[in-house]
Write a structure and sequence with these properties.
The protein has 5 helices and 4 strands. It is globular. By secondary structure, the protein is mostly helical. Helix 2 runs parallel beside helix 5 and helix 3 runs parallel beside helix 4. It has a domain of 136 residues: Four Helix Bundle (Hemerythrin (Met), subunit A) (Up-down Bundle), CATH 1.20.120. A hairpin with a 2-residue loop joins strand 1 and strand 2.
Length: 197
């Protein structure tokens, strides 16, 4: 986990230096997700990095949700923990829809409620839709907006920048949770699999 977060931080720090790179070379490739030079704006390195993290986490989290067998969606390591299905349901509305809306200023979509007991195919479809909302909502985000004041978590005043950081941390937290659940069921998480040579 630390190596993955370190790689992301390295990517964020490398964005300004990337202007010297050749126009057709990717700036960074992590777990098969490429941040292309064409997608980097010198005025928006933080927003560009956030969009990159969203693409990467959308792939990893969705792959993890697809990897867990349907009959294991009720699995939880201890009674006090969320089930795997609960994690996926939480990521849809309480995670992606709410957090990407707060970070971007875009209205979150009206969706039916999801529960951890819903069938796997419904949860995975909802998860994919929620990441599509994030991708669309974050497309126009600019660094100049990160200081904008917003009402966040119960109406407390905050900034879009804090919402952005919390969103990234939420994705990392829940992916690591999903990865542990997969391992406890004898499955290798998506980011632990070696790419084919």
């Amino acid at each position: 986990m630390r190596a993955t977060l370190g790689t992301i931080l390295l990517a964020v720090c490398a964005l300004p230096a990337a202007s010297a790179a050749q126009a057709n070379e990717p700036i960074i490739v992590v777990d098969g997700v490429r941040l292309e030079r064409a997608g980097v704006d010198a005025k928006n390195p933080v927003s560009d990095a956030f969009r990159f993290v969203e693409q990467r986490q959308a792939k990893n989290i969705t792959d993890a949700a697809e990897l867990m067998p349907a009959d294991k969606y009720g699995y939880k390591p201890t009674p006090a923990q969320m089930s795997f299905g609960d994690v996926v349901a939480h990521l849809i509305a309480d995670g992606n829809d709410y957090l990407c809306s707060a970070a971007s200023g875009q209205k979150s979509p009206d969706r039916p409620k999801f529960a951890g007991t819903d069938p796997k195919d419904k949860l995975v479809a909802g998860l994919k839709d929620s990441f599509q909302f994030c991708s669309t909502a974050l497309a126009a985000m600019q660094d100049a907006q990160l200081g904008d004041s917003i009402k966040f978590f119960g109406g407390r005043m905050s900034t879009r920048g804090l919402a952005t950081l919390i969103t990234v941390a939420d994705w990392a937290d829940h992916y690591s949770q999903m990865a542990n659940y997969l391992r406890l069921n004898g499955l290798l998480p998506p980011t632990a699999k070696r790419p084919a040579p």
